[in-house]
Amino acid sequence: MDSRLPAKKITMTALQRKFIETGFVGFTDLDVIELLLSVCLSPRKSKSAAKKSIERFGSLRGFITASPQELEEIGGDSSCVFCVKIMHELPAAILKQKIINQPVYHSSQEVFDYLYYSMRDLKKEIFKVLYLNKAHQIVGTEDLFEGTLDGIMISPRDIVERAIKCSAAALIFAHNHPSGNPVASTSDKKITRDLVFMGNILQIKVLDHIIVGEDRYFSFADQGLIEKYDNEFQNLRIKSSLDVPYAPAAER
Questions:
Q1: Which residues contact 230 (CB under 8 A, 6 or more apart)?
Q2: 3-state secondary structure of 25
Q3: Are strands 217-219 and 205-212 parallel, antiparallel or unpaired?
């Protein structure tokens, strides 16, 4: 006699059936939130929590980026927090895989497309470094520094150590402006100039520094500033060599 229990029949909700048939076509933010919550809550609870989510967070984007505590306050349990975290991180992981698998780095837009999803809703500034090989293939990314709403402290020494450890031949820097305005500040320009100078000394090419804002970005390379800083370094190098006083051979 087979003592195994019969498989439990799963009854789908109307929203779940609709999603299977048409995807997200015709779905509102409220519908998508309710659909996601239905994975971990009963239909009644998922509907109630979805309404509370829209009232509190305003949109699907606000819901996806909510903190675990905020999710619990609208009726979500630990399994809901887990599901929402996966939904938030999965697209970023896919975009990261896509850009790392690119045969070669082409443009600031490619990097922005990858960075935007993971950096657009951050409440603090994060300074990220992308490491490239000699063929300008992106071989890795790393969050090196975390700041506040107003700024971030960057250590060029730490960047040098990590770049050497990763055997990087080129670097792309990126950070976000929580205000949403990506225009480079005076301090942004100063640190970028210093990093370009540092790269020239170490023979590690700085390709770009991208500032991520709300739906837009600032690229130092696109604005001609990376080339400008490279030229400034070369001019200083030439000037320095010309300023060395000549000494006759007998005095050397």
A1: 196, 200
A2: coil
A3: antiparallel
Q: Which of 198, 199, 188, 176 is nearest to 225 (CA)?
A: 188
Band the pLDDT of 30: cuts 50, 70, 90.
very high
Token pair belonging to 104:
């070669």
Burial 39-60, CB ≥16 within 10 A → b, else e? ebbebebbbbbbeebbeebeeb
In DSSP terms, which residues pair with 132 in a beta bridge?
Answer: 138, 170
Distance between CA atoms of residues 96 and 87, nearest Å: 15
Burial (CB < 10 A; 0-12, 13-18, 19+), residue 108, is buried
Give how far Cα 134 sits from Cα of 104, 138, 171, 206, 242, Å. Answer: 10, 10, 11, 12, 32
pLDDT per residue as tens digits for the range 62-88: 888 888 888 888 888 888 888 888 887
